[in-house]
Structures are given as structure tokens and as C-alpha cells.
Amino acid sequence: QVQLQESGPGLVKPSQTLxxxxxxxxxxxxxxxxxxxxxxxxxxxxxxxxxSIYYSGRTYYNPSLKSRVTISVDxxxxxxxxxxxxxxxxxxxxxxxxxxxxxxxxxIDYWGQGTLVTVSS
Amino acid sequence: QSALTQPRSVSGSPGQSVTISCTGTSSDVxxxxxxxxxxxxxxxxxxLLIYDVNKRPSGVPDRFSGSKSGNTASLTISGLQAxxxxxxxxxxxxxxxxxxxxxxxxQTVL
Lengths: 121, 110
Hints:
Chain A is mainly beta. In chain A, 0% of the residues lie in helices and 50% in strands. Chain A is globular and about 40 Å long. Chain B is globular and about 40 Å long. The model of chain B has no long low-confidence stretch (mean pLDDT 96). Chain A binds chain B through residues 35, 45-49, 52, 60, 62-64, 96, 100, 104-109, 111-114, and chain B through 1, 3, 32, 34, 36, 38, 45-48, 50-52, 57, 89, 91, 93, 96-104.
């Protein structure tokens, strides 16, 4: 059973960088075929795909966030990370890490529990 | 990319069937057969119900079914049960490894 767990600060100041890490257990990022993803949900709103990364390090981003997003992977620690720069109150959301696949077009079958990040001074 | 369009809410009585629509464009829902549906209970992470338009992961009851016609995908819940009261989201592959979600539908069991 694959499990994902988000970690990182729950409070970030405006204009700073939001940084989250997702730790994968019960499965290997290196096994291939899956795209490790970040998805967010603004309070009381719908889901928004932020981006995905393959174990090789190749990344794919939501065009609306691309200029501010970096996703990276560390296969040795079974972790992948999200950096979102120049945050504003509009980036306050629950951030989920998740597994997508098999293949880039597959469903998102495993999700972390989500972590609320608030942007406020 | 604009969000896929879903009704804000639907409702049905126990035992009835409800259908939730998800309308996109000829560049996403209409072009690819890679629509998925998710169920989300309050305070919980979403759960995959349907992928590739009409396939169910292991463990998902066959009361949940998916279909697609043109630019619109649909999720049908048959034999409504109390535990089906939740928010439902559709998602489509939109090319270039990108995904687009719907705005979500609140499903109420009367």
C-alpha cells in the first residue's frame, strides 16, 4: 500500500517561498511509470493541479503557475518537493502530494492527507 | 486552461440514481479518453472513483459508473447511499502532461 505524507511550514509570509516535501512509503519513486504530483485546494474551493515530476527528474507544470513553481525529486530518500516563490494570500490552500499513473494520463490513485499552508504576515 | 464545468450541486433520495456532468472542450474532455472522477468527504483527501472515462479501481463499488459523449463526461451513482454524500470532482488530461479539474459538485442525499 503506497502512502504519501506532506511536511513543511504551515505559515509562510507574503513574497516568500513556500516549500513542502512529500515522503513516499510502501512503494518506490524509482519504480517508474508514475508521475509524482502536487495538487492544491483553496479553502472551500475546487482542486488545482500544480505539477508533476517523473523519477528521472523531468517536470511538468500548470501553465498558470509555471513561472513560480519548481518540483524536484530525491529518489535516494523517496521524497519529492515543491517550491512556490513570491507567494500571496491567494496561495493559501491545502496542498496535497499524490501519485498519478500509470502513465502521464492515468488517474491519481494515491493521495497524501494534505497540509494547510496559510500565507500571512 | 479553464476549469471544467460541473453543476454546483445535485441531490437524490436513497436508492435513486444521480448523474453529475463535466463539460470541457475539444482540447481536453472531447479529445482524450482520460477523464477521472474523485470523491471527497469533508476534511479528507480525494479518492479515485473512475479513470480512463469508465474504469473502476479495485474496491470501488459498481454503483459508480462513468461515460463520455463529445465534450461532456458524466458520473452516475446508482442506488444512492447515505455515505455517497460528498463532493465530486472530474479531471481530464489536457495534453503536454497537464491535467485540468472541474469546479466540483456537492452531492446531497435527501
